[in-house]
Amino acid sequence: MSQQQLFASFLLDKKAGLEIALRAEVVAEATPVNGRIQYLPASLDFVEGIMHLRDEPIPIINLKKRLGLSDHQYGEDAKVAIVRLFDRRYGLLFDDIMEVFAAVASEVQVLDSALQTDDKIISALILREKGTRTIELMDLGFLFKDSSVELEKMGGAQLGGQEPLKEKTYSRFVVFGFAGRLYGVPTECVQEITFVDSLGEMFNKESDAKSRGFSGSIDDIFRHGDIDGTLQLRGRTIPVLYAWRLLTAEKGGGIEDFSDTTRVLILASEGSAVALIVEEIVAIEAIPDDEILSMEGIVGAREIGVSGIFQQKDGHNITLLDMQNLVCDRLEELRAMSRLSDDFDEVEAVEESAKGGSVHHLITENCYLIFDIGKNMAIQLKDVQEIIEEDGVLSLPGETGFRAGVINLRGEVVAVVNLRNFFSYAKDRTIQAERKLVICTAGSRTVALEVDSIVTIYKQEQYLQTTSLNAELADKKDVLDRLIVFDNGSGASEHVLVVNVHNLIRNHIDITTT
Fold first, then answer.
1. Is residue 405 packed enough to be buried (19+ CB in 10 Å), middle (13-18) or exposed (0-12)?
2. Which one is the CATH code of 171-336: 2.40.50.180, 3.40.50.2300, 3.40.50.720, 3.40.309.10?
3. Can you say whether the dihedral through the CA atoms of 445, 218, 269, 106 is positive or negative?
4. Which helix (H) or strand (E) holds 150?
5. Could you read off the pLDDT of 257-297 as tens digits, one per residue?
6. pTM check: above 0.70
């Protein structure tokens, strides 16, 4: 796999859509403008002044002036990226914080020096989204032009020749806003910050007759319980959670309230990844460790995933989250959907490339796809090729019973089996809009199993042999030869019959290899 580099991108000019990237390792934090910026007499034209950040004077650079933009004003919601250069800290003014992303070498194109003057500051272009989005990479070494050598010699000297302040330890957090409150996630848990595509196409259950993805980048195939679906990120399938599910006791709401500030935090913990959708990214903030109010000893704090509280100078509190404990009750389910490793070659995946996109569903040993057909049943996940919407089913003349017709699956004619009818369960026409087709394979044979809805992916190491079935299912014993104990999260367990896809195809459906 190509070597990747991490970058932090910022919006320098909203009107012009000018986006600037910095290497992530030089960005200490990103924060709103803290108080007023104090004018510094006899300074360079592009030095806006001094901002006090936790009692440390930070020189603030007006990048719009430094880059020669005609409009060099900033709004009240401007952000400051705190960077380290020559053992000093400087603040760079931006209109907004964008994202943290990984890019491979082929996406970074070095600018030809012949195209720039001696006062250059942009060293390369980063091509994103197949070249439709271009981000300019800034080289901090060129920030002060002729003064760089002098600054480097000065090293860690402080303003006014003062002695260095006593070393303080800091922890870095990505601070996001939700429902009028601020939350912080440790930066080491944040793999990336990215966007939700096609926000205007968010799924509205009341106005849309079909169950479809929440957006162009979110797939709700595995939507259930607290998990709202999955998204694809460079070939990985990542479960999606909306912040309100984790941070409130409410059972719904909020998913339609997206705006231009909505961001997706890709979080990694305990070998699993999850995408957390938040209202906005407020800052990347370095918080002094000795100013964090510890939650140790507070009953229930650990269980609800809170590690501490930090009070800002303006009186607002940032609730610092312990992501491992916050999602610990979902870890097994997340692992069943998404496996992370240092190199993604170790991830086992079923990949289906089709017109209009690709679908990836990760396969984990001893996992089952739980579905509903009037009662919960299961299929071994290793037999599942993909899950698609119940669209384009072609009825055939003379077919009755459980045979629901055929579909054209990328040039292959695949038989559709209605599992409700196969097991003689009563029809329920109220769930028509939620139905899915589970595409299963057995050797060279493929079948589409029509189910009412997908319940969950469930990991169960043990199973039991089916010893007896009721009279209605007795003739299907070869198909229902095992069962598992399923905990549906309500505190009660139930026995769920597992469909043997191989016996279903071989013994009950006359399918010839195409």
1. middle
2. 2.40.50.180
3. positive
4. helix 148-154
5. 567 778 888 887 666 678 888 888 888 888 888 888 877 65
6. no
